[in-house]
Please model this.
Amino acid sequence: MTQVFDQRAVDEASFAQRIADTLQLVQATLPVQRRMVHAGDTIYQVGQEFGSLYVVNSGLVKMVNLSSEGREQVVALHFRGDWLGLDGIAGGHYGCDAVAMDTGEVWSFRYDDLLRAALRTPALLTALHEAMSRQLARDHESLQSLCALPADARVAGFLHYWAEAMARRGLRTDQISLRMTRAEIGNYLGMTLETVSRALSRLARSDVIRFMEKGRRDIHIPRVEALTTFMAQVAGPASARAIH
Model:
């Protein structure tokens, strides 16, 4: 077991270093525009003409669509090092709204500048392809989770995903501050606010998580691996693997 955790720590440190290296590469080779954003700020809008790509340097960003009923649908979450706007390359327009979830910094650069710079620095093209691959893998995992897991396991998997994203960026995982309301989490996971609240309460009663303050957005996770155990208990080992 110690070997497993040691290897996980090495993998997380390696990923954090790759993010730092990519950000340094982008900054050194491209004319980057930096923008400070705050919760609720729109970075770009659905239907807007594509021209630039974006990289999250700090903070959190959600991708939002409108459902057929006109309701906001959260379709993806992005953390430090993630690239935004990739969906605009094919069609020439952005496919979602990109909205900041807290205070942070987003870098933007022209796509044509990236292509020109990549002729001189092929590592830029590698970074772009890696960003695309990560996004495809994450979308696939998210779809598997929605299809395979019951509600309680889905919420546990969401917290596991959030904690893992923090760990891979060198941040603490024992306490996370969710920058989403219960309604937004339900929206993202395809369930109601009430179902999310009940699932979180069951996780707390099982001592898998603990609420840190009255607003119940700050969550203490004594052992991240306990989330996976909880998933296996409520969904079965085969279904629990869908989150990995």
